[in-house]
Amino acid sequence: MARSNRLLIIVTNVGEYEKVGYRTGLWLGELTHFWDVAEEAGFQMDIASPAGGYVPIDPESLMLQEAGHAVGLGGEVHEHYEDRAFMDRLTDTRPVADVHAADYDAIYLTGGHGVCFDFPRSEPLAKLTADFWEAGKVVSAVCHGPAGLLEVKRGGEHLIAGKALTGFSWTEEGLAKRDKAVPYSLEDELKKRGARYSKSTIPFKGYVVEDGLLITGQNPASAARVGEAVVRRLKEAD
């Protein structure tokens, strides 16, 4: 199968929690770090979201991070945030129902707490992700992005059953002080669906798990490494 040299990135439309007043949205670095790696490797990318349209940004993701806490403005993420052309990509994204797996080599599910709400509730996203898998294409996700895998099924069974993967841990959720805000423990929900979940022994340290065409990263520090793994896997398939 010839490569299209195109990747599909999925982002959230949700900008706030349901139970608390915190604002949330896309964790911007989980887009930009992956983007930079894939772009340098010669891939083009499109961005879609469950509902289409505007993508909110988690305000804390614009800050430099230290041990899961914001400590100030700056860094590579902020350079993208200042880039009008780059940020305009997030003003009117395509709805996932309007995109097709056949047009891309891989799908990448970004994180940010907003995805905990709209990713698993999106039937079109579950179907699209299953289409990528059935076509023998790379399925990847980072941080809370694996929430988009929770309701993906294949032959009536959860796609992630028996698969090795990772995602934002409950320990990290507590350290980030979002354990009382999120609707569920992503770590627990992945395990309930039969996934062979693992995580770094050091919270917020980059950690990536590869299981065939499934590539997942644990936290924001893992996004670039997920990108590197996706690029490597695609080039190995040439």
Task: Explain this structure.
With 238 residues, the protein is of the alpha/beta class. The chain has a single domain (6-236), classed as Class I glutamine amidotransferase (GATase) domain (Rossmann fold, 3-Layer(aba) Sandwich), CATH 3.40.50.880. The chain is 29% helix and 20% strand. It has 8 helices and 13 strands. The protein has helices at residues 28-40, 75-82, 84-88, 115-118, 123-134, 170-175, 186-192, 223-236, and strands at residues 6-10, 44-49, 63-66, 69-73, 94-95, 106-109, 138-142, 153-154, 157-158, 164-165, 196-197, 208-211, 214-217. The strands form 4 sheets. It has a 7-stranded mixed beta sheet with strand order 5-2-1-6-7-13-12. Strands 3-4 form a two-stranded antiparallel sheet. Strand 1, helix 1 and strand 2 form a beta-alpha-beta unit. Helix 1 crosses helix 2 and helix 1 (28-40) runs parallel beside helix 8. Mean pLDDT is 94; it is low at 67-72. Its EC number is 4.2.1.130.
Helix share bin:
25-40%
According to DSSP, the number of beta strands is 13
Mean pLDDT: 94
User: Largest beta sheet, briefly?
Assistant: 7 strands, mixed
* Residues in β-strands, percent: 15-25%
The low-confidence parts are: 67-72
As for the number of domains, it is 1
- Annotated CATH topology: Rossmann fold
Number of helices: 8
Could you name the CATH class?
A: Alpha Beta
> What class do helices, strands and sheet pairing give?
alpha/beta
